[in-house]
Amino acid sequence: MPRETTTTRQGDKKVNQYIPKYIVSKPWYQDVSTPGEEDKEIDELSHQRKTGEIIDHSIAQSGSGIKEEFKGTIRTTDESEDYDVKRDRWYGYSTEEWLDHLKNWKEVQEPKQDAANDDSDDTDYELELIELGLDRKDLNKNIKEDPMEKMLRDRQDIPAYIYNITANPNSKIKIDYDPKSRLAKDMSKGFLNDNNQFVKKLTGTANELTDLQKVASDLDKEHEQERIQARLKQQFFGDDGEFNNQVPETDLNLSLEASPTLMMLKAKQLQKEKEKETAKLKEKSKTNKNEISQKYISSGTTPNLDKNGLKKW
Predict the structure, then answer these.
(1) Could you say which of 118, 177, 245, 281 would form a disulfide bridge with 164 (CB–CB 3.0 to 4.6 Å)?
(2) Where is there biased composition of kind Polar residues (predicted)?
(3) How far apart are CA 134 and CA 212, in angstroms?
(4) 110 within domain boundaries
(5) Would you say 264 and 212 are in contact if contact means Cβ atoms under 8 Å apart?
């Protein structure tokens, strides 16, 4: 006779007679009862399940191991801050910060640009533009550089090789043009040295410096001649007390590098002395010319003199 599998009801509760008691009954440590709990439908095997609740598979839900990172239209990221994430150089960086920096820079630069474009001093220029119906911005538009402008030569700009073609032998402008090297050398502005190299003449302060160096070298040579003569006298007369310790020492004041101001004063002094000597020679030549002319006038003959007052032969 087959075994009956019946269930009995305790009130509205179904009880399976064939489930062992140790499975149906809860342990003493899980016996937590709350008031009104008898009215609810109780799962007698809830303590045997992992979840503790019956999963209703009729409701759509994500599978196991799947994280719900996207909720609706708002994108969310997994903010799991591990050891490497916290030490990333771009950790916590947002592109909105860069946009804020750009906005601040524009706010700073716009007043500067407005101040540069605002020329309050050019009132006449502004009035003229208003009369012509123009604006500053219109003047900077549609400006194209002519490619032939750089190739054209000014009419007053004479090429150097033309001087060489049209130069007369007695003219001041005479240029040696080398067609191989395409170099034009104006001999009035320089000279050729022993190595056939063109050296420009010094002008301005460079010329003044060379004059000072020449004056310093001439004075040093004179001082060196005095030292040589004194040394020869000392060697000739021996230990005679009259010529002993008569050799002059080197004068540092004659060096342009040691005392440039003193050398400039000495050069001016020498220049004044030369001017005085030339003035004396001119006066002397004038007096001689006047004496000769008076001599011939008194004798009644006309002197045959040149422009310097000398007699022609």
Answers:
(1) 177
(2) 290-305
(3) 61
(4) no
(5) yes
